[in-house]
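Hi U.,

Before I forget, here's the chain from the pilot set. I'm dumping it here mostly so it's searchable later in email.
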Amino acid sequence: MSFAAYKMMHAPTGIENCASGFITHSAADFAPQIPPIQTDDLDSDWPAAKATGPIPNLVVTAGNVLEVYVVRVQEEGATGRESKGPVQANRGGVMAGLSGASLELVCHYRLHGNVEAMAVLSVGGVDGGRKRDSIILTFRDAKISVLEFDDSIHGLRSSSMHCFEGPDWLHLKRGRESFARGPLLKVDPQGRCAGVLVYGLQMIILKAAEAGSGLVGEENAFSSGTAVSARIESSYVINLRDLDMKHVKDFIFVHGYIEPVMVILHEMELTWAGRVSWKHNTCMVSALSISTTLKQHPLIWSAANLPHDAYKLLAVPSPIGGVLVISANAIHYQSQSASCMLALNNFAVSVDSSQEMPRSSFNVELDAANATWLLNDVVVLSTKTGELLLLTLVYDGRVVHRLDLSKSRASVLTSDMTTIGNSLFFLGSRLGDSLLVQFSCGGMGTSPLPLVLKDEAADIEGDVPSAKRLRRSPSDALQDMFNGEELSLYGSAPNNTQSAQKTFSFAVRDSLINIGPIKDFAYGLRDNADPNATGIAKQSNYELVCCSGHGKNGALCVLQQSVRPEMITQEQLPGCKGIWTVYHKNTRSHNVDSSRTDLEDDEYHAYLIISLETRTMVLEAASNLEEVTETVDYYVQGGTIAAGNLFGRRRVVQVFARGARILDGAFMTQDLSFRAPNSESAVVSESLTVSSVSIADPFVLLRMTDGSVQLLVGDPSTCSVSISIPAAFENSKKLISACTLYYDKGPEPWLRKTSTDAWLSTGIQEAIDGADGTAHEQGDIYCIVCYESGTLEIFDVPNFNCVFSVDKFVSGKTHLIDTFIHEPSGDPQKTLDKNTEEMSGQGRKENSQNLKVVELAMQRWSGHHSRPFLFGILTDGTILCYHAYLFEASENASKNEDLASGQNSATLGNISTSRLRNLRFVRVPLDAYAKEEISSEAPSQRITLFKNVGGYQGLFLSGSRPAWFMIFRERLRVHLQQCDGPIAAFAVLHNVNCNHGLIYVTSQGILKICMLPSVSSYDNYWPVKKIPLKGTPHQVTYFAEKNLYPLIVSVPVIKPLNQVLSSLIDQEVGHQIEHDSLSVDGSYTVDEFEVRILEPEKSGGPWQTRATIPMQSSENALTVRVVTLLNTTTKENETLLAIGTAYLQGEDVAARGRVLLYSAEVNADNSKTLVSEVYSKELKGAISALASLQGHLLIASGPKIILHKWTGSELNGVAFFDVPPLYVVSLNIVKNFILLGDIHKSIYFLSWKEQGAQLSLLAKDFGSLDCFATEFLIDGSTLSLVVSDEQKNVQIFYYAPKMSESWKGQKLLSRAEFHVGAHVTKFLRLQMLPTSDRNNAAPGSDKTNRFALLFGTLDGSIGCIAPLDELTFRRLQSLQKKLVDAVPHVAGLNPRSFRQFHSNGKAHRSGPDSIVDCELLHHYEMLPLEEQLEIAHQIGTTRSQIMSSLHDLNLGTSFL
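Structure:
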């Protein structure tokens, strides 16, 4: 392996920072979200409307991912027609007038840098809350980016960037190279300035632009008439060393001063645990008044003598003001005029020993707490054990008298929390799922009676059996696995103390799934694996079982990259071209219409229509799928092109090559045949057949093989259909390459809002509705057409006026804007496009000319605020996916438009009034989807939309790379389905035996009826199933022979303190301490370790613990491995479970450890697994790693490794080597080579020789490196050594004794280095899959014997490092260099600097740059086609070659 590619396959999910602010809307334009039905009785319901108030956005970051969400609340009783959708997140009952709240994604970005801190720059209450807030992000060392939401592109845009790195700013570091933490960021509550603490003691003040300042002209060019966001105007640096501060721990801006006032928490002189009795109150707070205009910062007040372990400041909101200082054992309140404190446990030290300290009623440690304000005098604190505490400030005027602390409920272990609006808060977590919680305050705690009732009801709600509430929200299934107490944040117990304690009740409303931190993972078989599968299909036999979470959030996450449906039945069915399921309503009467909406989802399908090459089969679908082809009037003599329902499911339309039939159940009511429009040329009409069909009740759109279009118009009153050719296409010469109908359903059709004269169009629509006598679900139908030239047009049906058009839809621009709107010249995108077109010479024009759109689909799935998606498939297999959004262009833009339309022609003037001029589309990246090679035969329709398959909605893409596109929170989740190879046809099936299931036909001609696996949550990058463990998982391994997962779990146990202390005494030396000195009362939490042996459940149910191996007291299990040992007496191989442990007894006791060998037997009736201990032996030193090496057992015990042979009854040492200087982190073995990673001293490469029975050191890395994980990388015949380290890098070394710089082979040489940006904890070596260019390679050659490394990280991300051949690498590397400049990077981050090796100030000689970054290469597919061709030309290759290189890499690594 000389070259490799780094690829992120699952983005990070552990949320580190969260904040709330009005990013996508301002507080003023927040209309209370009450559906229109409620407007008349508003006055009766006014408290509910008032309670929610304007709700800000939620912004979260996880690793290098930035996401902005909008919070949708559902008022109680406001169950409009829309809320009947299958996925409704109404968790937690009704509280305070809200029946539910859910998060909906606005935008999602993967940045080229890890976000260190995030804050929202708000404008305060200036000009009635019209301005919006901005997001400030800081990145490692000293980069600051300010982002604002731009409506015109429906995304974030950088408004300013501030960098204090590089040669100009070296003096800020004052000679230091490494700093303990990244930039710390805080914002003034009124938005006048922000402060960033970098390099330990340099404070950067960012001054915000004042409202109304700034050049007006520039403002308009930037954001054409959209809302203005808060901006940063200038910045300057304050050196805190000049103010006599040495060790700054935290700072914050306080409320209630005329100028911004910054309070800094700093330590005068350091102390440590051993000196606390002499020196304890070493911290102090200083308040500086920041004058941004004068750049002065006078000290206005300070307070000293704060505890040495104070670490966090909280600014108390107005009207109280001041700060809370949080330390591990006490909370202090400080303001200019008053101070008070609250001791949290016995370790708190009073400021001066004379006065008595107020104590809280219970003991708690607050040494890693997060906090957010619920009211202006109540703050909720989340402790390190995941408990929520409520701290109330008891005040009079502006003087705080005392602090009151009360316990609330247990919840998730948080990494950050934020309040959203006035009734919700969000708990962001790296260690568990993040939760959106609603709170309501019950006023003063006078009568606890109603609270108890509410509490009871809430707990009952929490314990509903999981079957009933399985599908209300995607992660509900997970929530149910936790018991009631675990996640029920409902209610706080009434407080006994007669205080002004407010009582709160809580309800979990939504949750974001998290699979991090992945400490270890195993790769095992799924329960429904198919033993005969080969190639890529074989990969979906496997799943990844990850140890994730911590403490009570600990869980096993079972991840599968591809969906594998659970099969109900299968049949041989060769030559199938398509399948459809249709409904049939028996009732003719119209009065069913009112109740129709409720029953629609549960109606069974009536017929299943299967189109074969020469005939059509019809099966009766409601129960047992009997064939009824002979007895129905369907057209069965040839293949069917499409079938569907018309007239509210009262009729079925079946379209075949030369005609169509309308059927009522089994009886035909109408037969149509298609002719060419000019019927005198009969020769032409012979070859004219239907090629694709789109049905939207009551219209059917047909595209003929010659590129013309015909429309079947239905008449609901007679249930009959007539053929017409739309006037718009009647004599047009433009050939149509794809077309579809879009039915904009719902009480308020979405596209109608985008038209400027909305009142006009609604009036017309109602008139049409009234004419045909039946009340439609009011909605509009549109026809979307793509011409051979690549232009896309949207027409309204049935008038066929063009309402939206886009030139060059094929090129895949990032935004689609109606061509009739001429943007003001300020838009850089347009001018750029023109330039590239001029630059790209004629020579390369033709290879883009043959790209056409072969299929279109547009759909808006149910949900109150959903927006339509538009999909297009091109001839080369590229899938374009767009999401519609609304943008009201400013006045000057529309003036331009009127001018333009006036010049073009007179006729356009009157059309343009009804255009959807506010409609725009933004392109959605689909990098999870590897596109397929399109075959030359006539394209079949590949997109099937579904509204309810197993409770999910989205679309299914058939073809050679089938995939599920599911919609959650207005975001697309793409999950491949590889288990059956290519899929020829797909349909939804809902009947007695198959509840909301699916039916598909593989290209091998097998028809399968399936259900989606139910346990998984699909609202994640990969489908995931979580198995709660109620403890911290540490390491897992797969016992393949018995299909078991042995797993190390530690559970915290509270023990009496004297019992813990007595275990720390060295028993061997026999220091018997007198017992009276040990009578210490109190308790201490100890982790107790055990090895659990889990078996995956066959039917997809919960996993069962089959056996448990407990450890002794104060013994930690460090490693568990399945090893194959050669029994030297019987000469047979035995597969055993090996466990390595260590005794933790403090620093005075010599380290010892045990090695344990167990055998596992599974009984025939499969009820119990018998695990029996075969051998155990105590060794010196901790046993931190084990491996089997050619039938021997290699044990890393303390500072040496020992090789043992197994006699069947005991282990005997054969060879040893004093190699790891400190502690082995990981041990890998290939053949007789050993790779060993040490915790500080980098890696060692050894070999084992059987003849002389000796372990010998081949080479080592002489640098110092804190290893996290190691593994061998095999590429053909070359062996490389990969290591990940504590600075989030990955390095690849190789052994080359012939090279002079390797010091005669003693030194490992660097082959590549790369910054991953996350701690890689485990590598797994997997063989790469054969791709198109490898099919012809001889077996066993370099091309086939090629392995990639799959890795998991502490952020919850999964990626892989795959070897590349030199040609591909050179091509992709030159593309990568181009893309650094060609792609606009979010937040202005440079991908090259992010991927540089981070050495944290240590001397490091940089290695070669031979890893390409697929995170950057993914952007190539998102560029417009013209730019793709241009870039490919500049690096001397073609677009198709680049695409096939990326595609092969995707295919070769599509594991799982």
